[in-house]
Amino acid sequence: MKTRFVIILLLLNVAALAAGFVYCSQYWAAQTEQDRAAAQMELAAWQAKGTAPDVSAPPPPGVVYQTNAFHWSQLESTNYQEYIANLRAAGCPERTVKDIILTDVMRLYAQRRGQFYHNGRPFVYWETDEKRKLKQPQIEERDRQLAAIDKELPAVLRELLGINYEREVNKYFVDADEDDDRLAFLSEDKRLQALSLRDQFEGKRERILYDVQNGKPSASEIEELRQIDQSQDEALAQVLNPEEMGEYELTMSPTADRLREQWIGFNPTEQEFRALFEKQKTIDDAYEFEDTSDATVSAMKASDEAQMLASFQASLIGDRVAQFERAHDPEYQNLTLLSARYDLPADAPGTLLDMRRAAEEEKAKLLSNKDIPPERVEAALEAIQAETEKAVRATLGEQAFAQYAPSAAWIKNLGAH
């Protein structure tokens, strides 16, 4: 975590430095152009008189051109709100404003974090490391303080810049253009408005949830959250038409994200995904503000989801029924991810599961035959294991097999009596 934090600070400092360099370069380029224009006007005036300056005469007094000189101190302020206002008033691009403030705030919180990693004992080079390790009470206090900082930092950045902390940090590592890719079906103007509304209403929810005790909002807080959801839908409806609203939900909603994660290996068609989404969204909306940690509520939701899945499965035909059932298997999902990673044939996950089933059935049949001597049973089991491992290796290839083998205990179990 510390290394990642340092990397983030480094990246943000570089971004801010680059922004400052561009600003100053543009500023001094403009100043140079003004000086050049002044010199050309002076030369033109001499030429108009038909005379040239007398080089033997003493030089005229120097002329100092005073322009709107810029000093960074004009913008800086210990008040972040004022600092941001000054930057914006000076025409600083919003992206650069965000980089500067984000860097400054992250540095401030890094200093706060750092003080809880030291036990207060000064460094002495001849002392071994245990002398400067935290005592247990200090570790407990550090964890409390870091938890408070981890909760406070996102709220501060949301308040100052209207940004989601996790999403903003991820832009420096994995998904700088993910939102644009997801919302490519919208015009740039609508995309910016939709994302701005998302950030705005996320901030409103966070302000309510920040002080929630034990993760359970009160009845009044729940009602506020309901109102925020409704207001967001109404605001989006002012920007997006009904078709775009539907596409936005299918693209950006937590329900859609969860379905894409849960049904790896099923490969739903667009129509199947829409049908599944509508059913799941109905349940998610019904239980959004319910306490699912309550056993009764949890059981009711599980029952509703089971009925929903049964209803959806009943709408499938042909091989899709079996494919839907197989997608419930966590091992099949893991094999699907592995196959996608190594670009294996589409039927590789099913082939491997069939191999496993056949090998385990052969082992069970062998063990149930009491007429075979124990030494022959042991040799036969070893042969089943060896042949199965060979077949799995051939199906996956060496790289994928090396990735799969540590979690494939079932292959080794084939040879166990």
Explain this structure to me?
It is a single chain. With 417 residues, the chain is mainly alpha-helical. It folds into four domains: 2-49 and 71-121 and 131-170, no CATH class; 186-251, no CATH class; 268-328, no CATH class; 330-413. It has 18 helices and no strands. The chain has helices at residues 2-49, 80-89, 94-114, 136-161, 165-170, 178-182, 188-209, 219-239, 242-252, 254-262, 270-287, 295-314, 319-326, 330-341, 348-368, 374-396, 398-404, 409-413. Helix 7 runs antiparallel to helix 8 (219-239), helix 9 (242-252) packs across helix 10 and helix 15 runs antiparallel to helix 16 (374-396). The protein is extended.
Short description:
The chain is 70% helix and 0% strand. It is mainly alpha-helical and 417 residues long.
Annotation keywords:
417 residues; mainly alpha; 4 domains; 0% strand; extended
Characterize the overall form.
extended
Beta strand %: under 5%
Largest sheet geometry: none
What order do the SSEs take from the amino end to the carboxyl end, as H and E?
A: HHHHHHHHHHHHHHHHHH
* Low-pLDDT runs: 1-36, 45-53, 63-67
**Helix fraction by DSSP (H/I, runs of at least 4):** over 70%
List the total number of helices: 18
What class do helices, strands and sheet pairing give?
Answer: mainly alpha
Cα-atom Rg, whole angstroms?
A: 33 Å
Number of strands: 0
Number of separate structural domains: 4
For the record, give the distance between the C-alpha atoms at the N and C termini, rounded to a whole number. 45 Å
Chain-wise SSE layout:
Blueprint (H helix, E strand, L loop, with lengths): L1 H48 L30 H10 L4 H21 L21 H26 L3 H6 L7 H5 L5 H22 L9 H21 L2 H11 L1 H9 L7 H18 L7 H20 L4 H8 L3 H12 L6 H21 L5 H23 L1 H7 L4 H5 L4
